[in-house]
Design a protein that fits this description.
By secondary structure, the protein is α/β, with parallel strands linked by helices. It contains 8 helices and 10 strands. The chain has a domain of about 150 residues: TIM Barrel. The chain binds zinc ion (ZN).
Length: about 230
């Protein structure tokens, strides 16, 4: 789980959300060196369903920042990897209004043309709600609007099926998972720590946060040891 692939501006809170392009490139190089293939969620589903076996690292980027296109995409292409970017559909071409104040920074999000460039490069766009609310706090009709509505808005822009969902803040219970299933998504990711295993709940997939605040040796630990599973 990545957010920004960029150098963190000075004075920003939660610098861990930024992984520098240099470090991102080193991490992708390490994946390849160790024999892993970096895949989007859709490409990884056969592995998560237990239909295929292989060394696979699912690469996800949350919120849809423009730096994903500018800084992560060239690296992903260099290694022949794919990735899924989860986009807040009512904020396309705008910024991170939901946490800009808390973080002290307005970060530009991809606009429709940039999202199409991401798609055209073989990358996946997933849905991350319409406005990035905490889904458990919503009424029934608002919940459906945020979940199914984000899929509709993204499919209109991209003209390809959008089948992956990411819960804002990772906040989801049974009701939210059911709403995502009902809206026709194939899988959804949480923020819960851990490595996803074949046969797990596809609507509650754990992830590994790759943080810019981690020392460089943490990434290989996360990848190769039980570091993330213990928490
Ligand atoms: Zn988010």
């Amino acid at each position: 789980m990545y957010h920004n692939v960029a150098v963190a501006p000075k004075g920003v809170r939660l610098r861990g959300l930024y992984v520098s392009p240099r470090r991102f490139a080193r991490q992708m190089a390490l994946l390849q060196w160790l024999g892993y293939r970096g895949l989007s969620m859709s490409a990884a589903l056969p592995y998560l369903r237990g239909e295929r076996e292989g060394k696979v690292a699912v690469i996800t980027l949350d919120d849809g920042y423009r730096d994903n296109l500018e800084c992560a995409l060239p690296v992903l292409r260099r290694y022949g990897f794919t990735a899924t970017c989860y986009v807040v559909s009512a904020a396309i071409g705008a910024d991170n209004h939901w946490d800009a104040q808390r973080l002290g920074v307005h970060k530009p999000l991809m606009n429709p043309d940039e999202l199409r460039s991401w798609r055209d490069a073989g990358m996946e766009v997933g849905a991350h709600s319409r406005h990035h609310p905490r889904l458990p706090e919503l009424g029934e009709s608002e919940l459906d609007d945020e979940v199914a509505g984000s899929r509709r808005e993204l499919e209109e822009i991209l003209t390809v099926p959008v089948t992956q969902f990411c819960y804002p803040y990772g906040a989801a219970g049974l009701r939210e998972r059911e709403a995502v299933r009902r809206a026709g998504f194939a899988a959804a990711v949480a923020v819960r720590r851990g490595r996803a295993l074949p046969g797990g709940d596809l609507f509650d997939l754990p992830r590994v946060m790759v943080g810019g605040h981690h020392a460089p040796h943490v990434f290989p630990l996360q990848l190769l040891t039980r570091h993330e599973d213990r928490h």
